[in-house]
Amino acid sequence: MDLYDNSMVAFKIGHSNNNQLVFDTLEEAIKNNPKAKPLIHSDRGYQYTSYGFKRMLELQGMTQSMSRPGKCIDNCPMESFLVR
């Protein structure tokens, strides 16, 4: 989600929140916005702390941000987007 205008940059739906789903979603976001160098915010799930995810961000020149431990409010924009 782009927090500037609340538009969806990319999304994928799967049966499991696994590395492949996260990688595919990031690849779609990159394809849709090839020149963007955004700050990517996530929770601390294993998908977002994996070497593969960090490497994808590094190769694209993107900066990673993670929520603070025990502070779910950090993820509020994305986790509440359906409520709007």
Structure description:
It is a single chain. This protein is α+β, with helices and mostly antiparallel strands and 84 residues long. It has a single domain, classed as 2-Layer Sandwich (Nucleotidyltransferase, domain 5), CATH 3.30.420. It contains 4 helices and 2 strands, in the order αβααβα. 6% of the residues are buried. One of its GO terms (biological process) is DNA integration. It comes from [Clostridium] ultunense Esp. InterPro entries: Integrase_cat-core, RNaseH-like_sf, RNaseH_sf, Transposase_IS3/IS150/IS904. It holds the Pfam family rve.
Helix-strand blueprint:
Blueprint: H1 19-32, E1 39-42, H2 46-49, H3 51-60, E2 63-66, H4 76-79
Parallel strand pairs: 1-2
Helix pairs in contact: 1-3
- Overall 3D shape: globular
Kindly report the average pLDDT value.
88
Structural class: alpha+beta
User: Which H/E pattern describes the elements?
Assistant: HEHHEH
- Report Rg: 13 Å
Spatial strand arrangement across the major sheet: 1-2
Strand content: 5-15%
Q: Count the helices. How many? A: 4
Q: How many strands, which pairing sense, and closed or not: the largest β-sheet?
A: 2 strands, parallel
Features:
Integrase_cat-core; alpha+beta; Transposase; RNaseH-like_sf; globular; Nucleotidyltransferase, domain 5; about 80 residues; nucleic acid binding; two-stranded parallel sheet
Give the gist of this structure.
This protein has 84 residues and is of the alpha+beta class.
